Amino acid sequence: MIHRRIALFVPHQGCPKDCTFCNQSRITGQKREERLTQDQVRQTIEEHLTTIPVGAYVEIAYFGGSFTGLPRSYQKMLLEIAKEYIDAGKVQGIRFSTRPDYIADHIMEFLLPYGVTTIELGTQSLNDTVLELSQRGHTSAQVEKAVKTIRKYPGVQVGLQLLPGLPGDTAEIALETTRQAISLQPDFVRIYPALVIAGTELEWQYRTKQYTPLRLEEAIDMVADMWILFMKANIPVIRIGLHSSEDLRSEGTIIAGPFHPSFRQLVEAELFRRLLSEVAKAQQADLKEVRIHPADETAVRGSQGRNWKGFLEACKPSSPQLVLDRSLPRHEIECIWKQEDISKYQLSSLESS
Fold first, then answer.
1. Is there a single domain that holds both residue 277 and residue 251?
2. Which of the ends of the chain has fewer CB neighbours closer than 10 A, N or C?
């Protein structure tokens, strides 16, 4: 089934304070004090509905702030409009992001009648030192409590948003956060490597040499290792890297950090590089073909074709052909040997480095 989200932004609204890394106004292009009006909400929904295929599963999504921290009257207005479209059969649910410490049973009881289907928790890390240095104002224990609270309501999915590379974070801590996140069994996760955004305290820490952001190569390796663990646990990673919006790309918004408009593709390419290396090491006979799903071709070949060129060099004297096969699942390589033997390799079989 096709899934679509109609995104409406409430930047910083509902947040009790600014975390060191956050400036939603620069990321979304909307000012913090600008509240959505009923007309704006309806207009945005109507415009998006004209572009969505019939039969798609559609959620109205409120992002950019802590939804359950908004004034109750404002929450009610936003939820009531969304509920109108649910009742009319035009959308199927409501999703929003919020803080882990802004979830409780009485909050859930307020939300459920409106048709809330997904809650994304701004978790960032499950290491309390990293959370403290980032001035999040919540602990890892509160994340666990929030997930358990949401799990009392079976109709609501829960997702975790993670930001590796924050102050105090390391590759080891990020992997431990990943393991802890897996133990909470979320329905999905998002991974956004930390960036230095203009107007944040993190910018000041960076300029005064108190904080060093991840280099792009470091972030790719770190997120690749995290993704492997999530794949092994069958937890979908629905987004990697911030969406490359016009506001995010505008001059002076990103001061430093591992931003790339195709960051997810870079991580996929790194994972396929590792998998191709495993295939090359496992050669026991002449390799005839390497079959993949067409959607994986760019990642398999790698930037400027480096993955595939390196693989062919490692396979000599074999010279396998790359074959695209839509019948294969994503993130898998099927090898056909000249003896007609078949071997299969999955990204989920890789080990974190």
1. no
2. N
Write out the residue range of the structural domain in which residue 285 sits: 268-349
Q: Euclidean distance between the first and final Cα of the chain, in Å?
A: 35
Distances (CA, A) of 56 to 49, 59, 237, 347: 10, 10, 20, 29
Query: Angle at the Cα of 321 (from 305 to 295), degrees rounded to 5?
Result: 60
Number of domains in the chain: 2
Per the DSSP assignment, residues forming a β-bridge with 94 are 60, 116
Residues 44 and 185 occupy one common structural domain: yes
Alpha carbon distance 212, 202 (integer Å): 10
**What are the pLDDT digits (tens) for 157-209?**
999 999 999 999 999 999 999 999 999 999 999 999 999 999 899 999 999 99
Q: Is residue 17 pLDDT above 70, yes or no?
A: no
Q: Assess if residue 334 is contained within a domain.
A: yes
Interhelix angle for 216-232 vs 263-281, to 10°?
70
Q: What is the pTM of this model?
A: 0.91
Collapsing DSSP to helix, strand or coil, 313 comes out as helix
Indicate whether 242 belongs to any domain. Answer: yes
Backbone angles phi, psi at 248, to 5 degrees: -65, -35
E runs forming strands in 11-106: 57-63, 93-98
User: What's the burial of 166, exposed, middle or buried (CB within 10 Å: 0-12/13-18/19+)?
Assistant: buried
Give yes or no: residues 298 and 331 share one domain.
yes
Which residues face 9 on adjacent strands? 63
Alpha helix segments (H runs only) across 140-215:
140-150, 171-183, 201-207
Do residues 239 and 320 both lie within one domain? no
Q: What is the CATH number of the domain that holds 87?
A: 3.20.20.70
For residue 326, the tally of other CB atoms under 10 A from its CB is: 7
Can you tell me the distance from the alpha carbon of 118 to that of 153, in angstroms, rounded to the nearest whole number?
11
**How many whole angstroms separate alpha carbon 194 and alpha carbon 85?**
35
- Residue 25 in domain: yes
Residue owning tokens 């679509």: 4
Residue 289's H or E segment, with its range, is strand 287-292
Asked if 108 contacts 150 with a C-beta cutoff of 8 angstroms, the reply is yes
